Amino acid sequence: MRFRFLCILSFALGICQAFADELTPLRTALENQAKHKTVSVDLRQTKKIPALTDEIRQQGHLWMIPGKSFRWELGKPLVQSAIYDGSKVFLMDETRKSAVELEPDDRRAKPLLMMLGIGEGASLDRMLENFSVSGTNSVGHHFIVSLSPKGRVKRALESMVMQINTRSAFLERIEWTQKDGTIVITEFFPPVINKPLPKGVFEVKREAYTWE
């Protein structure tokens, strides 16, 4: 019995080590992404909602100082924006001109922060506490990892797929599949790295919104 247990344990540890080795390109790319001084990138977000026949597709833009601050805008004309100034997260509905100020650990802010690699919970090691690796693939300088949620995260998410460019050290694509069948895909175009960002890009014009 003890021998059988040791065999099973060795097999499990072998799988864990194999996945750890496979994740080296992702870990290296995320470490290099954190070294970027600035990032400016166009993006496209697609939502596939089971109750709707057509996809919801919106263009947007992201300005970011990795690990420190970002401005996220979605829709043309602008529909939604989010700003993290290093201490608080601000979510703005640009149609209704309403806004909310959140702590970084608020559940409404966490998915966006995690996707952009901001905060302790966004580190690869912390991410692997909430997700298990179900597969990896590498095509040229594109590295793809499929993740399955664990614990409480499993209540809301079915799966997550990340694709990162190991050359530019930046995300190319992230796909969330929710429990209700909704799929959210965010695609990032080739980024402009280490160039000056617009002045005041992380400032919040509080007077322009009605705050919750």
From TrEMBL:
Coiled coil: none annotated. Residues 1-20 form the signal peptide. Keywords: Lipoprotein, Signal. SUPFAM superfamilies: Prokaryotic lipoproteins and lipoprotein localization factors. This is Outer membrane lipoprotein carrier protein LolA.
